[in-house]
Amino acid sequence: MDLLDDSVVPEHARDVKQQAREFAAEHIEPNAEEYYRTGEYPWEILEAGMDAGLVAQDISEEYGGKGYDLEQILAIAEEFYKADAGIALTLQLASFGCEIVEQYGSEEQKEEYLRPVAENEQISGLAVSEPETGSDLAGMTTTAEKTDEGWVLNGEKYWIGNGVEADWVTVYAKTGDKEDRYSNYSMFIVETDTEGYEAEHIPEKMGMRASKQAHIVFDDCAVPEENLIGSEGGGFYMLADFFNHGRVVVGGHGLGMAAAAIEEAWAFVHDRSAFGRDVSEFQAVQHDLADMLIEFESARALNWRAAEKVAGHDNAGYWAALCKTKSTETAVQCAERGMQLHGGRSNLTDRRIARVYRDVRIPVIYEGTNAVQRNLIYRQRQ
Ligand SMILES: Cc1cc2nc3c(=O)[nH]c(=O)nc-3n(C[C@H](O)[C@H](O)[C@H](O)COP(=O)(O)OP(=O)(O)OC[C@H]3O[C@@H](n4cnc5c(N)ncnc54)[C@H](O)[C@@H]3O)c2cc1C
């Protein structure tokens, strides 16, 4: 059963999708259980992904990447997340801080910071969320104060992918106190070896254990003036635009995981007997599988439609929120059904279905919780 067939994928994204599929089968899937169990950072697989030209290639050719567009990145995401979400997140986040630099940064910033990531010599991160809030983007408290030499950052960030491993991170910080609370934030490039940047891994997670997030503390962390990205006060709007792309890709995380849950449940019920019959022969079981397929195919059609809308700047915020919500919740539903169909074996921690069940709890939260997405969907339709 090829759930991630390429008939909905635009022609130009099919080759890279196939490459991602082959890479995932060779490097991600066979190692997923071990990395989940040890919770170690999958450096070897990250390096293999770099060698295969599948990491950080959203950076444009001008700065050393392949310039993969949204649809190509979505195609890679579906394949990687089906193989394992934790390892996939690590591979995807290597360039997480780059898009904002590429969109809004100066020529010098792009040359200095994007090229080493595109050439796989460095990795980056994006630091937005804080210990006290991840949802209220205009309520964050990390500050950047202007001095004669540049900017001094103080505050904390939480949940930051690669906060320990990255060479530099793009940081969202408060630079103003205007009544219009959306104009008070700016973006900065911060090298992780700067004095006053301290990061430690957050405690062990339940899901996506092969990815690592950090608690970062900025304690009088001084960066030069030229590390401000774009214009002062423009940070909130840069993020809003960035999230439109990101949420289409997070929809792909959901699709990959939903496909994994269906595949796993399907195989299990066709290989197990009860009451002298194959479990898959019970109509109730067939209906469960049918429901999973209905949700999955609906989510996938929506997600690829949204990718086209967002790429074409056509009511992007609306479509991004729609598909992020639908695809990630489809993953939750499929994992839940898949667990039930596995009977008692669903509880064995080394089972793929149990890993997917734990992983699906994360994309309904990151890049804006699904409650926040519903706020956006409603507001943008008024
Ligand atoms: C594995 C993982 C990786 C992550 N990686 C990164 C990263 O690399 N960089 C980064 O910056 N962040 C990252 N995050 C953080 C993530 O984006 C936040 O966790 C998320 O935005 C939610 O913020 P919060 O956890 O502070 O929850 P809160 O904002 O405190 O929300 C708590 C609850 O309140 C609800 N809520 C809040 N506001 C509203 C509202 N207006 N309407 C309705 N309900 C509301 C939420 O839906 C949620 O149910 C990551 C998170 C995880 C789990």
Task: Describe this entry's structure for a reader.
With 382 residues, this protein is α+β, with helices and mostly antiparallel strands. The protein folds into three domains: 11-119, Acyl-CoA dehydrogenase/oxidase, N-terminal domain (Butyryl-Coa Dehydrogenase, subunit A, domain 1), CATH 1.10.540.10; 124-233, Butyryl-CoA Dehydrogenase, subunit A, domain 2 (Beta Barrel), CATH 2.40.110.10; 237-380, Butyryl-CoA Dehydrogenase, subunit A, domain 3 (Up-down Bundle). The chain contains twelve helices and ten strands. The chain has helices at residues 14-28, 32-38, 43-51, 70-83, 85-93, 98-104, 107-118, 235-269, 283-311, 316-341, 352-359, 370-379, and strands at 124-127, 143-146, 150-161, 168-174, 185-191, 197-201, 213-224, 228-229, 273-274, 277-278. The strands form three sheets. The chain has a four-stranded mixed sheet. A four-stranded antiparallel sheet has the order 2-3-7-6, with no helix packed on it. The chain has a two-stranded antiparallel sheet with strand order 9-10. Helix 4 (70-83) packs across helix 8 and helix 9 (283-311) packs antiparallel against helix 10. The model has no long low-confidence stretch (mean pLDDT 97). The chain binds flavin-adenine dinucleotide. Flavin-adenine dinucleotide binds next to strand 1, strand 3 and helix 12.
Secondary-structure blueprint of this entry?
Blueprint: H1 14-28, H2 32-38, H3 43-51, H4 70-83, H5 85-93, H6 98-104, H7 107-118, E1 124-127, E2 143-146, E3 150-161, E4 168-174, E5 185-191, E6 197-201, E7 213-224, E8 228-229, H8 235-269, E9 273-274, E10 277-278, H9 283-311, H10 316-341, H11 352-359, H12 370-379
Parallel strand pairs: 1-4
Antiparallel strand pairs: 2-3, 3-7, 4-5, 5-8, 6-7, 9-10
Helix pairs in contact: 1-4, 4-5, 4-8, 8-9, 8-10, 8-11, 9-10, 10-11, 10-12
The structure holds flavin-adenine dinucleotide.
